[in-house]
Write a structure and sequence with these properties.
InterPro entries: Ice-binding_C. Pfam families: PEP-CTERM. Keywords: Signal. This protein is an alpha+beta fold. The protein has a single domain, classed as Sandwich (Jelly Rolls), CATH 2.60.120. Helices cover about 30% and strands about 40% of the residues. The chain has helices spanning about 1-15, 105-115, 145-165; strands at about 20-30, 30-35, 40-45, 55-65, 80-85, 85-90, 100-105, 115-125, 130-140. Strands 1, 2, 4, 7 and 9 form a five-stranded antiparallel β-sheet that branches.
Length: about 170
C-alpha cells in the first residue's frame, strides 16, 4: 500500500515540477532620430507572447543607441532612459554608440505584471542620436496548468482515501 501512495506522490510531484519558469522576449525595431533635448517614447507588449499577468519575476531591457554622425565637434551625447517612470541616467557623455542595458527595477516589474506593457522614454539631455532596436527579456515564474492542478487534487484525494482505509 505504501508503494501505491509513494507512486501517487511521486507522480504528482513530477507533474508539478514539470511546469518550469519561462522566458519571454519582445523586440521593438525602430530607427527613430532624437534631436537635441528631444525624446522618443514607445511601448513593449508581451501579452501576445503567452504572458500571464503577475508572473514576471525579473527582466532586462537593452536599447541600441547610435550616434547620428562622426563629425569631430559632435563628441557625444548624454541620454536619460525612463522605464515606467524610473530614471536611468547614463551618467555623462557617451562617445559613439551608447547602448543601454539594465535590469528592470521593482517599479517597472510591477507595471509589467499589472498589464503586460512596459513604457520606455529615451530623452536627449545633450546631443542628438538614433534609437534603434529595443529588446525586453522577461523571466516568468511557473504557473500551474489546469491539468497539473487536477492531477495534484487527485493525488491528494488518493492519499486521503488510503488513510481512511487504513483507519
Amino acid at each position: 500500500m505504501y508503494k501505491a501512495i509513494g507512486g501517487v506522490v511521486a507522480g504528482t510531484l513530477l507533474a508539478v515540477s514539470g511546469a518550469n519558469a519561462g522566458m519571454i522576449t519582445d523586440t521593438v525595431n525602430q530607427s527613430q532620430y532624437v534631436g537635441w533635448y528631444g525624446s522618443h517614447s514607445y511601448t513593449h507588449n508581451i501579452n501576445d507572447d503567452g504572458f500571464v499577468l503577475g508572473s514576471a519575476v525579473s527582466g532586462s531591457l537593452s536599447i541600441d543607441i547610435a550616434d547620428d554622425s562622426s563629425r569631430w565637434w559632435d563628441f557625444g551625447e548624454t541620454i536619460l532612459f525612463v522605464i515606467e517612470a524610473f530614471d536611468f541616467d547614463t551618467g555623462g557623455i557617451q562617445f559613439g554608440t551608447a547602448n543601454f542595458g539594465n535590469n528592470l527595477q521593482a517599479q517597472a516589474l510591477g507595471a509589467l505584471n499589472a498589464d503586460g506593457y512596459l513604457d520606455v522614454t529615451v530623452t536627449s539631455l545633450y546631443g542628438d542620436f538614433y534609437v534603434g532596436r529595443s529588446v525586453l527579456t522577461v523571466i516568468t515564474e511557473a504557473v500551474p496548468e489546469p491539468g497539473t492542478l487536477a492531477l495534484l487534487g487527485l493525488g491528494l484525494a488518493g492519499l486521503g482515501a488510503a488513510r481512511r482505509r487504513k483507519a
